[in-house]
Every structure is written in C-alpha cells, then in structure tokens.
Design a protein that fits this description.
The protein is mostly helical. The protein contains 8 helices and no strands. Helix 2 (about 20-45) runs antiparallel to helix 3 (about 45-65) and helix 3 crosses helix 8 (about 165-185). About 30% of the residues are buried.
C-alpha cells in the first residue's frame, strides 16, 4: 500500500468508491485502531468490537460513493459508521439475551418435523455460497476460504500467505461485499455475514 501513503483519507475514500481494495486497506491501517477503540468502549467485548469494525468498514466499501467531504472528514465518517454498528450490536445482543431459549435450540429437544426440508434448504444454501465463492478473484476467495473453512484468523491468513494484514483485511472486505452482491443477484436476502477475526 505504499502508493497510497501520500493521499488524504478523503482521496482514499474516492478510490474505494471506484473499487480500489488497497485504498480500503490503507484506510483501515489509518483509522482501524481508533475505530476499534471506540467500538470496544461501547461493547466491552473484543469479538463484538471486531464485528462492529468489520461491519463498519464493509459499510465504507459499499457507501464510499455517497461520502461527501464537505460534510465531514473521512476519518470522522468512518468512525461514525463503526459507532453505529457498535450501537446496533448492543441492541441486538440485548434482544438476544432477553429472548427465552427456543425449544429447538435445546440439545435434548426432538428433531422438528421439517428437519428433512431444513437439511435440503441448508444444502441448497451451501451450494449457492460455494458457487458465489468460485466467482470471486483468486486472492479474495483464498483469503475467505482460509478464514471461514480453515478457521484461521486474519492475522494467521496474512502470515500463511506472506502479505500484510491490511491487504488481507481489504481482500476479505471486498470479497464479502462481492459475495453479498452475487447472492443478492441470485435471490438472496443478503443476510449471510461471516465473522472476521484478527
């Protein structure tokens, strides 16, 4: 990412709007630590804070074209997106904790009558996701497969592939954004959001 070192944050957002993954990685390198600190102060949980940062930077990737530098600095905009995601996660976690344990979630619960249909649906979804993964550029697919099927953290993926962590993060953000698009085009609700871990 050295080619981006002389650019302002606002210029990097403009490059992200044109699909430049390395610009997203450069933004993450500049703003990610501050964004994580804010998310952690809200959530008090490392994994949830990482989720908030992931979702916030995914929003940067998707909404970069809508950014208006006359309204706010790019770093402020990014931190605001992460802050919103952190607040959303707090609300989601509060709702989840308030919900009673569903009968189907108990380990001793009998199989529901529709289990064969559920298994067929899950198989169909798995096939759709595999097909969507195959449509990604090799670098994005490799990073996502190592993370989600190999169980490696982003740091471990970076070490295994011998590339900077920021590059891995930008590949994964871009890959996830593209997966959403592919799955949406195929009729998905766009609800598949894997967890990224550092």
């Amino acid at each position: 990412m050295p080619r981006h070192t002389h650019l302002s944050d606002e210029a990097l957002v403009a490059l992200v709007a044109r699909g430049d993954e390395t610009a997203l990685g450069a933004l993450y390198d500049r703003v990610g630590r501050v964004a994580y600190g804010i998310a952690y102060r809200i959530l008090r949980d490392e994994r949830l804070a990482e989720d908030a940062v992931q979702e916030g930077f995914l929003a940067v990737w998707r909404a970069a074209a809508a950014f208006r530098p006359e309204r706010a600095k790019a770093s402020t905009w990014i931190v605001t997106l992460v802050h919103r995601r952190a607040v959303d996660i707090v609300r989601r976690e509060e709702r989840r904790r308030a919900e009673p344990l569903d009968v189907a979630e108990r380990p001793d619960a009998p199989d529901p009558a529709g289990s064969a249909e559920d298994a067929a649906w899950l198989g169909f979804e798995r096939d759709r996701i595999h097909a969507a993964l195959r449509s990604l550029p090799d670098a994005q697919r490799e990073a996502l497969e190592l993370a989600y099927y190999g169980g490696y953290s982003q740091t471990e993926v970076a070490e295994r592939l011998g590339v900077p962590l920021g590059t891995i993060k930008s590949r994964m953000f871009a890959g996830l954004a593209r997966l959403r698009e592919v799955l949406d085009e195929a009729g998905s609700e766009g609800s598949w959001t894997p967890r990224l871990t550092s």
